[in-house]
Amino acid sequence: MTGVHLDLNGVNKMLQNGRSRGNYLAANQAMLEMNRFVPYSGKQRQNHLRDTAHLSNRTDAIIYTTPYAKAQFYGFVGRGGYRVRNYTTPGTSRRWDLRLKGDKQGMNNVINAFRKGMQ
User: What domain of life does the UniProt record list for this protein's source (predicted)?
Assistant: First the structure.
């Protein structure tokens, strides 16, 4: 019987490198697109939530480092878990990741960034 062996290690390595670049560019674009939905006090204070976003080392997560980031993201504050009802900056709210998913133009920008990284 005759067999054919394909060595695709080089192809897989090229695809992996492209995928890594694509993930990095897409995550950066997502961070940029979501920024307009992230609450912002506008006051002259340090550690604004919008200003603390960065990518994880593996570029698979966007991390906010302020102490109140989790409360703002899920929309509950205090020990009783009170719902945040008033966001001072128009267009901002909790779960800004879902707001991006619902924004067709923003998601197209993220997808295009991934495609650019794959090239």
Answer: Bacteria
